[in-house]
Amino acid sequence: MISGVWGKKVGMTQVFIGDKAVPVTAIDVSNWIVTDICTQDRDGYDAVQVGCLRNRYAGETFSKDWLKQRKKHFSIVREIKLSQALENVEVGQNADFLDSIIEGGAVDVFGKTRGRGFAGGVKRHGFTGGPASHGSTLGRAPGSMTGARSQGKVPKGKRLPGHMGTEQRMMKNLKVVKVESDAKIILVKGSVPGHAGSLVFVRKVVKAG
Question: What's the pTM value of the predicted model, to 2 decimals?
Fold first, then answer.
């Protein structure tokens, strides 16, 4: 069985369920082509490799020459792990695995957070900063690095200013509000990591036991 699908975040909107407005994130899973099939005998594991076509080749008939120049024809190439080998799946066909995503079910969505560049301790870690009165000069500085007992060494893991964002994050147990099979769009309740157009992986929730 397939574990999930790759897609691109379109953005957020809202849909009405009864008399309630539900915030949802739209994920586009179109223009993905099966580029390779990994097997236990050849690769040591079962997986299906998929590639996202560049816009100029979207809608064209698949050609085996595309596999010789993957960077030219595919903007992204990723793998999807399989619990067992899939049947009736061939290289070159559309990676239409929406059947694995059940409307009304739950999914985990993986993505990278937005990049924020270099950030200070107040923005990056939520530090309070120094007092704004009584002559304090601390401002938004991080404060003391360490104590005298550590012989002046900065302890590992000390929260300091630095690069913020572009980290792998997962949103767990998001409800699948709607699956648009024709448009190949998945609507999940709530927000997911990343900016519009960023790559995300939608995985079926696996319940232990």
Answer: 0.85
